[in-house]
Write a structure and sequence with these properties.
CBS-domain, 8-stranded parallel beta barrel, 16 helices, binds inosinic acid
């Protein structure tokens, strides 16, 4: 006979946190959002990787490329670079994150000495740069022959056909430093010589990077940033259950810090085989998450198969139509609560704590706090990050409002058939499980994440918690009635600003 779950399939919107005792030490400045990413023996050791903030970006074409990964790692989160692209392209994105040196700019629009003042003006207008290196061949890493800044020319007094070589500051007058100079040392040189920028060159005098005075200050203001032992940004990458023997080595070679099997349904032999292959070839040195699951059985299966973290969620994503198309899934809150209970039991039995990621369906900032309170260690977000400047898509004007495009990996546009693969010879995805959509453009990641986390921290203080484990232990959760949801928003007043207020969905 079929199994019936007693609990209805509930969403985050059906829950509220009931405040606990807030002591004088429960203030937002004291809150730490540090959280484990990979499994560990709690109480005996530290996790191999912890996140500075409990947010990762979804394994999706419209969300996680190298630019997003750098922006999010700067804030303390992590991106999983999408796997629905060729192995080479994905590995190249990972490598770009690892090669990126915060504060070190690779100038990709250089001048050559025989260009003219007109070219300088055109480049300045197009890119807004006021400092332009001059290389012998005009290439990004060509031999450095000079620099042009706004102090080198006066448009009112010079003819536009004057040659760059005649007015640039030539190489012999420039202060430069070797390519392996640290950011701190570069900054000291900048201050000592009152420079605005410092070119770093290799031993052949080829230009490698520029360090700007202003970037050092901004670099220092990111206390949570995710750095590896070599001080490079950390980055994750999505893999699938088909081509792992080819994809995993390429991603590891490119420097990926952690992998995640990206699949709509994780309780399957295919995930077990993929995890087994990774353990056979890399032991525990390669960290890999698995999922998605929505119940205790699914959790136990992936835990025993060796997953380093486990993702929860089927059918809750904003662009997802899996539940409509196939009739499978589970409300994200119910799934999170049940899987967290199974994880805690597993920890009691084995001493191994497996971090959980609630994936999909976060609509309001407070849903993040609910997901954490229910036992998730971090959340994965797609729509949330797709709205920012750093997502891979262009900003478009739709009927007078700026939008960003956002499409599901199961949409015809993404054609990510591996994510929906059910094994056998026939490839998956003969029907769509996701839609193609717009989401309102929301500006830079940094500003939005700051507001979101301010709300999370504030609620944690109301619950008497200054760490995520404390929140998980102390949280008091209540199911809400439909009329209390109405009571929870602004009601029975006429809003002066029809566009809403800041607690509406983001
Ligand atoms: P969101 O944050 O609510 O937009 O959900 C993002 C999550 O939806 C992703 O991390 C995936 O788990 C899931 N997802 C991505 N693409 C699809 C799709 O096409 N169909 C169903 N789920 C999807």
């Amino acid at each position: 006979m079929a199994i019936y779950f007693d609990e209805p399939s509930r969403t985050f919107n059906e829950y509220l946190l009931v405040p606990g005792y807030t002591s004088s030490k429960h203030v937002p400045e004291n809150v730490s959002l540090k959280t484990p990413l990979t499994k560990y023996r709690r109480g005996e050791e530290e996790p191999a990787i912890s996140l500075g903030i409990p947010m990762v970006s979804a394994v999706m074409q419209a969300v996680s490329d190298d630019k997003m990964a750098i922006a999010l790692a700067t804030e303390g989160g992590l991106s999983f670079i999408y796997g629905s692209q060729t192995v080479e392209d994905q590995a190249a994105m990972v490598a770009r994150v690892k090669d990126y040196k915060a504060g070190f700019v690779t100038s990709d629009a250089n001048l050559s000495p025989d260009m003219t003042l007109a070219d300088v003006v055109a480049l300045r207008d197009r890119l807004g740069h006021s400092t332009m290196p001059v290389t012998a061949d005009g290439g990004a890493h060509g031999k450095l022959v000079g620099i042009v800044t706004e102090r080198d020319y006066r448009l009112s007094r010079m003819s536009l056909d004057e040659k760059v070589s005649d007015f640039m500051t030539p190489r012999e007058k420039l202060i430069v430093a070797p390519a392996d100079t640290t950011l701190k040392a570069a900054n000291d040189i900048i201050w000592e010589h009152k420079l605005n920028s410092l070119p770093l060159v290799d031993d052949q005098d080829n230009l490698m990077y520029l360090v700007f005075r202003k970037d050092y200050a901004s670099h220092k203001s990111n206390p949570n940033e995710m750095l590896d032992v070599h001080k490079r940004y950390m980055v994750g990458a999505g893999i699938n259950t088909r081509d792992y023997a080819e994809r995993v080595p390429a991603l590891i070679e490119a420097g990926a810090d952690v992998l995640c099997i990206d699949s709509s349904e994780g309780y399957s032999d295919w995930q077990k085989f993929t995890l087994a292959w990774i353990r056979e070839n890399y032991g525990d040195t390669v960290k890999v998450g698995a999922g998605n699951v929505v119940d205790a059985e699914g959790f136990r299966f992936l835990a025993e198969a060796g997953a380093d973290f486990i993702k929860i969620g089927i059918g809750g994503g904003s662009i997802c139509i899996t539940r409509e198309q196939k009739g499978i899934g589970r409300g994200q809150a119910t799934a999170t609560i049940e899987v967290a209970k199974a994880r805690d039991e597993y920890f009691e039995e084995t001493g191994v704590y497996i971090p959980l990621c609630s994936d999909g369906g976060i609509v309001y900032d407070h849903h993040i706090t609910l997901a954490l309170a229910m036992g998730s260690d971090f959340v994965m977000l797609g729509r949330y990050f797709a709205r920012f400047d750093e997502s891979p898509t262009n900003r478009v004007n739709v009927n007078g409002s700026y939008m960003k495009e956002y499409w599901g990996e199961g949409s015809a546009r993404a054609r990510n058939w591996q994510r929906y693969d059910l094994g056998g010879d026939k490839k998956g995805m003969t029907f769509e499980e996701g839609v193609d959509s717009y989401v309102p453009y929301a500006g830079p990641l940094k500003d939005n994440v700051a507001v979101t986390l301010a709300k999370v921290k504030s609620t944690m203080c109301n619950c008497g918690a200054i760490t995520i484990p404390e929140l998980q232990q102390k949280a008091k959760l209540t199911v809400v009635s439909s009329t209390s949801i109405v009571e929870g928003g602004a009601h029975d007043v006429l809003l002066k600003d029809k566009s809403g207020y800041s607690s509406t969905s983001n």
